[in-house]
Amino acid sequence: MSRSSREFGFMRSRRISLLILAADILWIVLALYLAYECRYGPGVSIDAVVDCFSLFGETAIAATLIWSFLALVMKLDGFQGGWTLRSVFSDLFVGVFLLMALLLANGYLARAYESRLVFIYFGSLSLAGFLAIRCVAWLALRSRRFSTSLRRVVILG
User: For the CA atoms of the chain, what is the radius of gyration?
Assistant: First the structure.
């Protein structure tokens, strides 16, 4: 394999990892809003969004920073060493557990008394969303690979 093709493969996998991280960050914000709505009742309006992020805005920022750090350190994109649903789920479970522990510790140290039920909903929604993001990415990459007319040839001689 030539050096340029390895660099291209690295750049492509790096780009996919960054796209997954960007989708994760968007999902964190959406999951926090959905958790707020589940806890305090549905009220889809501008006022509900403002109320949610006035209460949990700092938590959303902390969660995105913590998740970005964890995703880069623990390589939570799901494509390291092959893709299996079991390994992706276990890696994400550990990552979300660490995220929730650090968010709760941050809230305790800052003496910010926020709803624990929102955090439970947020953790559950985060895990489900992160897993869905990786499944969609895997399906997109798999369909892209199989949609091209790729032929594997073995030449003996």
Answer: 19
pLDDT digits (tens, 9 = 90+) for 72-90: 888 887 777 667 888 888 8
Give the integer Cα–Cα distance in Å for 125 and 31.
6
- Answer yes or no: pTM beyond 0.85: no
